[in-house]
Each structure stands twice: as structure tokens, then as C-alpha cells.
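Sample 3 of the quickstart, ligand 2-acetamido-2-deoxy-beta-D-glucopyranose:
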Amino acid sequence: MLFSALPFLFPSALAAQPSAPSPISAPLRDLEFGQLNFLHTTDTHGWLAGHLQEPSFSADWGDYISFSERMREKVEAQGQDLLVIDTGDRVEGNGLYDSSEPKGVYLSEILRHQHIDVITSGNHELYKQNTSESELLRTVPNFRGKYLASNIDIYHPETGELVPLAPRYKKFTTKQQGIRIVAFGFLFDFTGNYNNTVVQRVGDTIKEDWFQEAIRDTEVDLFLVAGHVPAHSSEYRAIYKEIRGIQWDTPIQFFGGHQHIRDYAKYDSKAVALASGRFMETIGFMSIDGLSTTNGPSKTSHPTFNRRYLDNNLFSFYHHTGLDAESFPTKKGRKVSQLIAESRTALQLDQVHGCAPKDLWMSRVPYPNPNSIYTWLETKVLAETLKDESRGERPSVAILNSGAIRFDIFKGEFTQDTTWTISPFTNGFRYVKDVPYEKVQLIMEILNQQTKILSTVQDETEPSLLPLVSPEQLARPEEIVVDDDEMSDQRITFDMSGSSQMPLSAPNTAGKILPGYTTKDDAGEDGDDTIHAPISFYRVPNCIQALISANSSGVPEKVDLIYIEFVQPYLALAAKFAGLELDFVKGSDVYMPNITLTDLILEWVRKHWQCE
Ligand SMILES: *[C@@H]1O[C@H](CO)[C@@H](O)[C@H](O)[C@H]1NC(C)=O
Ligand SMILES: *[C@@H]1O[C@H](CO)[C@@H](O)[C@H](O)[C@H]1NC(C)=O
Ligand SMILES: *[C@@H]1O[C@H](CO)[C@@H](O)[C@H](O)[C@H]1NC(C)=O
Ligand SMILES: *[C@@H]1O[C@H](CO)[C@@H](O)[C@H](O)[C@H]1NC(C)=O
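Result:
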């Protein structure tokens, strides 16, 4: 049989991707199983191949399928249940999704093999017409009966009719325990969707008849609210209050996401929320014991909840299933790992463009810094590549939002895959000519320091403005004061607040405790399965700027103000505050037509980072 022969030919094809690093052993906290157990992913953003340069997160979607199959076998042998949840943002952010034409065709074939019990849409599924239509026409049918959309409608591409993206909710009973569950699938109050979808505000949705009826069902042992909604959020609080107002005693389990963090919220002794990170770094585990069931004698439940954030690697998976490299992979899991490898080959994601001489970090070093990816962009990439011949030698300043970069660069091979993970967006550049340099500096100051003013105005005038920084940065605690004069004060350490945390990046070779996630949440400090040493991280500005082609005669008087398209509405607001009459809509023009930030990075890397 072909499958049994493969492992002998390619030992690493047993599981994970062929080029993935082996996981490093580390001390682990065990899982506490219960009557009802959950595995949860969120914000995977196309990373179904796992992380090929980080041992802690090197398992792929095939391994996750094996893991959930083995976990189901394990708990069902005890008469317990397992449910698998995914809460959206499956798209955009990795070459496995973005680099195919049309986007997502390989990804959706890989994704569909996982048995998912409740799946919902994120905001990224709704930015573009093609993406949301592909949800409607592919993902919803692939997960028929599992996909829920409590507050999303879509104009059907064929009939033009406004229809629910998927059913609003469902009621089902678990196989082993007979636990009766009413499940919902929400998206936060998102306004940046393309106009072919309609996202209803959560506060309005929960007043609708169907919702009111669903929460009045008394034959329910658990309300399950899955959603692309932060665990701590006004949306989940509103849903919690609405259900609690009707059912004072029924347990509620929320699963959430969007902020890209590990987080756990306790709404009351019988209502909790779990958020499970980002990018296939984390598999969230949740168990509930003490639920009432159709099989059980008692109608009163006294639930206990347990949560765990698993590092997505085979070392963790073997440990929690009690299996090993021989006994762990399932037939389906292996097949999907193989399918991922084939898809990556077809998309040429392993094509090497250069070799990075060192790590470049988004937020593990202060900014500016020789090891900051933003400093590198400003002083090298933009300064040396951003040049529109039609503008001659005119000096210019380029402004980028820091959220345009989505991931760190690791020392070593810079592949096609790396290109997509660090810069997945397709924004090009525009410019406005003859802007006084001093005013540009004032605009930068406004963009970076007075975000509160900007966000107030934004709510009134432009409700659909998207954040300038990455979701991880947004999720970081507000109360931390950044002192511009004192770089060390920009350091945000782990013990300062709520769920501040940072992922593992550099593997440790000494065999001791590795740096990585050290999560603090509403249940304490024991949530992570892998015991890690903490990592510090730093605030990054909303926007960065590069001064380009200014000559030695000092600071220019007027410049071409170049900017990545994404920031235009912010720039327009900031310019207004700076007292500058600029029409960014009619008074701007395309800079370097058809060139994106990704193109510039690639050009620079090919030229300067040749492999030895
Ligand atoms: C949408 O998808 C179609 C078919 O896959 C493709 O031809 C078209 O260019 C896509 N549109 C956008 C805006 O990406
Ligand atoms: C959506 O926006 C496009 C322009 O981008 C417009 O042509 C179309 O009529 C709008 N559709 C609806 C339903 O508003
Ligand atoms: C320096 O820039 C100014 C405009 O800012 C230009 O007039 C001058 O020719 C430039 N000099 C050189 C050597 O490029
Ligand atoms: C460049 O973009 C313009 C529109 O901005 C388009 O008409 C043209 O076909 C593009 N050229 C290439 C080579 O993609």
C-alpha cells in the first residue's frame, strides 16, 4: 500500500510538513477532561501548514485532524463528548490562501477535511465580494449543518436576494452524554464589510424573535455561543446578559477570537469565554463537567470549567493523547498533511528568494532598532526601492501603517511563503505632491500620538475605518503609558495586566524552559499547556515613515507625500488636524503603478539577501 510505504521513504512525512522543524520537548500541564470537551481554533488566516520556522507551532492541519480524531476516541471511550469549534478569519495572511488564483481554492479543500461541529465567519471572510461569496458557495456547504451565522446576511450572487449566510442557530444533543445544546454563531459589530453582505449589530440581533425564542427553550443543558468576537467584549456581555435575563441558571460557553490572543473571561460561575490565539499557534481546549443531561438524574447543573491553550506541535499532541509517532497519526490526518505538502508545492511556496542574515521583529525589540522589521523597512526597503520615475529626484516621505506587516522575519531562508506571511495585503501606493515637510511631521505626530482624537472623529464620520496596527497590538492593555523619552518604558512585561502575552519565536537549544506564551487570564496563570519563560514586547507606532531621495542639502522644504493606500482616510483626518488643505481623493495619484509593498520587499530581498 502506498501510504504505508511512504514513511520509510520520507521519515518526516509521518506527520507535519516535510520542512517543519521537530518540536522541542518541554514541561507540560495536563488536560482535565470532563463530560463535554472542546477543541477550538480561531484566526488561522491560512496557516494550515503550521509554522515552518518555529518548532512550537510546527504541526499542520493534518496533525490537528489526527489530534481531534484521537481525542474523540479517547473521550468517547470514557463515555464523554468532544466538539470541535472554529470561529473565523480562516482566510488572508498566508500564501496557502492568498497565492492561488482564485484565492483560497487549495485552502478550502484542506480545511473541509476537519470534522468541525460549529463554525462561524470572521471579518476577513467579508472584506471582499469574492471571499464572502466563496463562503456562501463553498465553505457553508462543506460544513452544512455546522456553519452558523446569527447576524450575517448576504446578497445571493445568483438571485440577488438578501439571505442569511448560514442558519442563525441550531439545537443538537451530544452523542455520548445526551447534553442538549443550543448554539449560535456571531460576528462582532463589524462595519468594514463589502456591501454584498450585511452584518447586523449584536445588540439588535439579540432582540429578534428567533433569538428570544431560542433562549426561552427550557430543554437546554448548555448555551454554546461561538463567534468571531473577543472573549472580553461588549458584544459577548450583551449576549450573556440577554440569556441570563431569561435563563438565570443555564451554563453558557462562549468561544471567541479576533484579537489574536489567548484569553479567558468569566462572566459568572456558569458562564465563561475562551479565545484561542491566532495563526495555528494555539489549539484551545475546554472541558465542562457537572452539566445536566437527558441521561442524568438531576436537572440542576453545577458545572466546573477547565481551559488550556495548547502549543500547536506534535510533542504536545503526543503527550495529551498518550500516543507516539507510530500510533498518533490517523489515515485522514496523514492524507491531509500530504495534501498540504502538494498544495504548497503547486503554489511554489518553498521557492527561496534569499536568506535573512538575522531575525527581524515586529515587537520583540523597541522601535527604532537595528533588529526591528520597521526600521529595516524605513531605512532599507522603502528608502532604496520606492521610486517613481515620473517624479524624478524629488524628495519624498513614505508613510505606512505598522499593521501592514503581519509577521516577524526569521534568520534563514526567505521563501515565497515568508513573503505572504509578512505582507499579505495587496495595497499599492499613492502620493500627494508638494507637501511641506514640517506638515508631514505634524501629520505623523497626530497619527501616532493622538489616536484618541482620531478614533473619536472616526466613529462619527467614517465608521468603517480599519485599525492601523495589527490585532495583537490593539489587544494590548490600554493603560500602559508609553514614555517617548525613555525607551525602556516602552517595554511591556507580562505581569502588568490581563491577557498580555507574546508568542514564542526563537527556539532554545539548551533544552531548558523555552520562551513563549505565558498567559494570564481570568482563571489565573496556569492556562498554557507548555510551561514557558516570558518574553517582553514593545509598543509599535501606528505609522512609520521613510525619508526618500533627500540629498545632503538637509531637510527638504516640500516633499511628495507617499502613502500606502490603506492609510488614506486616516491621513485625510490627520491632515485636517494639521491645518492642511489636502484633497486625498482628487488631489492624489498612483505612485509606482501596479507595485505593492510586497513587491518592494521581494525586490529588495532578492537583491540584498543572497544565500551563501
Ligand atoms: C473574483 O473571482 C473571479 C473568479 O474566480 C476572478 O475572475 C475575479 O478577478 C475576482 N475578483 C476580484 C476582485 O478578486
Ligand atoms: C455596492 O457598491 C458598488 C460600488 O462599489 C455599487 O455599484 C453597488 O450598487 C452597491 N451595491 C449595493 C447593494 O449597495
Ligand atoms: C537636492 O535637492 C534639491 C531639491 O530639494 C535639488 O534642487 C538639488 O538639485 C538636489 N541636489 C542633488 C545633488 O541631487
Ligand atoms: C497596471 O495598472 C493599470 C491600472 O492602474 C492597468 O490598466 C494595467 O493593465 C496594469 N498593468 C499591469 C502590467 O498589470
